[in-house]
Design goal:
Strand order of the largest sheet: 1-2-3-6
Oligomer: single chain
Order of helices and strands: HHHEEEHEEEH
Strand content: 15-25%
Number of helices: 5
Number of strands: 6
Length: 220
């Protein structure tokens, strides 16, 4: 497989979101992994486990096993619901998400997200949980709704009346599980953000059989 980075020419400045380059690399990598797993006829969790085993990626294996155990991966859900899995490493930490997703009037609805994080020694566990929760909500908001409209080079989306964000009644329940560790502490401010988008996309792939090819998932 040949993967390339493409930067289309544009006069519009392109800057960063929370978690910087991980915002798009996590989405591209983790959604592609699920597509490959399904083409191979292998459960996405088992597919990842074998990749991590071959690579000697102990942190990935640990958060994968933890999030699968805590999320109930492999147990039945009600009709119309599916789980999506994603794992990503950035800023020294490895984070896994399992999202439970359905489609309501054609829009994704996320009701529960289970998070496992390996951030070395958790100096302040409550702060780690808060960063995972806040980063996840930010990532879910832009993955679902983060569309900025531009006409003739001029931004039309200038305030929250035209830029939709995640509301409290749309926010999922979040469970954060911290992997016990005696290693030096690593980052928690950024790594919670990029994992939720591909987790939701992978749940939609399980629901519909169709890959996600563009963000946001809900167009204005």
């Amino acid at each position: 497989m040949d993967a390339r980075v493409y930067h289309p020419p544009t006069q519009i400045p392109v800057l960063w979101l929370r978690s910087v380059g991980a915002t798009h690399t996590a989405m591209a990598m983790e959604h592609m992994v699920d597509q490959l797993a399904r083409k191979a006829g292998i459960d996405p969790a088992d597919y990842r486990r074998e990749l991590y085993r071959r690579a000697g990626a102990d942190s990935h294996l640990a958060v994968l096993d933890l999030v699968l155990a805590k999320s109930g991966w492999g147990t039945p859900l009600e009709a119309g619901w599916a789980r999506g899995l994603a794992v990503h490493h950035c800023f020294g930490s490895t984070v896994a998400n399992v999202a439970e997703v359905s489609l309501v009037d054609g829009e994704p609805r996320v009701r529960r997200v289970t998070v496992a994080v390996d951030c070395g020694t958790a100096v302040s566990p409550d702060q780690v949980r808060a960063q995972m929760e806040g980063g996840l909500m930010y990532g879910l908001s832009y993955s679902l709704f983060g569309e900025v409209k531009i006409v003739d080079g001029v931004v039309q989306t200038t305030n929250f009346d035209s830029y939709r964000v995640l509301r409290m009644n749309e926010a999922p329940a979040v469970e954060v599980h911290i992997l016990p560790s005696v290693k030096p502490p690593t980052g928690v401010g950024e790594p919670g953000t990029p994992v939720i988008g591909p987790a939701v996309a992978n749940a939609l792939l399980a629901l519909t059989g169709k890959p996600v090819t563009a963000l946001p998932l809900v167009k204005a």
